[in-house]
Amino acid sequence: MTKMVNDSYSSLMVAASAASDGHFNTTIISTTTLMPSEMVSRIVAIFFGLIGITGLLGNALVVLVVLSNPLMRSTTNLLIINLAVADLLFVIFCIPFTATDYVVSSWPFGDLWCKSVQYLIVVTAHASIYTLVLMSLDRFLAVVHPIASMVIRTEKNTLWAITILWVLIITTALPVLFAHGINVSYVLLIAQCYSLHN
Q1: What are the residue boundaries of the structural domains of the chain, listed by start?
Q2: Residue 194 forms beta bridges with which residues?
Q3: In the CATH hierarchy, which top-level class contains the domain 35-178?
Q4: Which helix (H) or strand (E) holds 5?
Q5: Do 109 and 97 touch, CB atoms closer than 8 A?
Q6: Which helix (H) or strand (E) segment is 63 a member of?
């Protein structure tokens, strides 16, 4: 990127020199200092890295602990596992690519992966949100109707609710695949992954 800026700056200076008989004012810009956008890119990459590592380790531990201990398989813990899985999918499939999008000026992964990442962001976010809704409903039934809800709050019903939740989210998020894609700027020579309807 710096080389491209230096080359553009040099060609601009040559053109200005030719146009003004060699007499013109120049301001020297130091290329060793970070521009604000470069500084933001580095800070964003660091934060995304920290969030990714923390999310990966924390959610993987939740899944591992609950699945390895059969006594912990309650309706609430099944919902917690579902929330951890949704968050793990987000950390694995969304954070690295979103961070890369902030750091580099052009989307390097192609149109298919652009659509896939945007789709997975929506799916995992909705899965997390609606799992929290199911957890709230589960807690409401357990507190307000503790005896009557024992018939409803079973592991089998919870697994059905989780399955229906994922099927609904996966199918209702399909339009996101068609709404996103690569926009190539031939002037700037960059490809950007974003909503095609902006």
Answers
A1: 35-178
A2: 181
A3: mainly alpha
A4: helix 2-19
A5: yes
A6: helix 36-68
In the chain, the DSSP E strands lie at 180-185, 190-195
* Tokens at 63, concatenated: 């899944």
113 to 93, 101, 122, 154: CA distances (angstroms)? 10, 12, 14, 39
| Distance in angstroms (rounded) separating the CA atoms of residues 115 and 112 | 5
What three-state secondary structure class fits 139?
A: helix
Q: Is the pTM of this model over 0.70?
A: yes
Six token digits for residue 57: 């380790």
User: Which residues pair with residue 191 across a beta bridge?
Assistant: 184
Span 103-130, pLDDT tens digits: 887 888 888 998 999 999 999 999 999 9
| Cβ contacts of 124 within 8 Å, gap of 6 or more | 86, 87, 89, 90, 93, 94
Distance (Å, whole) CA 18 – CA 83: 64
